[in-house]
Amino acid sequence: MWEGTLPEILARTEAHDWVIKYLSDEKRGLLLDAPAGTGALAIRMKNLGYEVVCYDIDPSIFSADGIEIRNCDLSQPIPYPSTSFDFVTCIEGLEHLENPYNAMREFSRVLKPGGKLILSLPNYLNIERRMKFVITGLFSKVPSSVVTGDAPKSNLWMCYLPPLTYPILRLVLEHEGFEVAIVAKDNEKRRMKWLLPIVWAIRLYCCFWSFEKRKLYHLDETLSSPLLMGGNTLIVVAKKRSMSELYINNRGPTFQ
Question: Quick one: pLDDT band at residue 1, thresholds 50, 70, 90?
Fold first, then answer.
């Protein structure tokens, strides 16, 4: 059991709290945490009784004594045998990768059938970010030397790279053999309530779309409150399907 002050949390505290609450009700097992950052989440998961393996592209920032940290670029193959882990946590990592699709493919490979992947990433589909995109043409700020110093040249992984939206995320996860089970938000942003009239207008406009067009654009999901009115972070739990489950229709996720 860890005693003392936790290392600095590089992700959002609410995302860590959500993961710990979810894992508290799960059967303990072998868990891969990548990227592990400073090790703050790994410590809490180990305290729950999980056997935690950590990877990060920069192990020098890891400060969780008693937990092994290994160097790994998630845009490359994960140096671990297939079907090894019961759980994988990737908290605020995909948006920093040059190849997030490779990471999801590797997560599927190292997970056991029935194993669970817990992801968090920026919620690019909340109404605030949609409005910023309409105004600026960007989902997030473009990394520059003014903001990040030499990061764009030396440490590109410190910047936000691909804006991975939920429909594309779900498409890739299902292609890699996952079933999305839960979609949740970290917290509410009260100031977004000022944008509710725009939300109502979007939903009313889309009511006139045909069923086929609504399905094509995943509107029942992308116009749901956790996505449209959610906070800065989107949390997704996906289960790796067994061979017998691959041919069963996906029931669809639970939105929280």
Answer: low
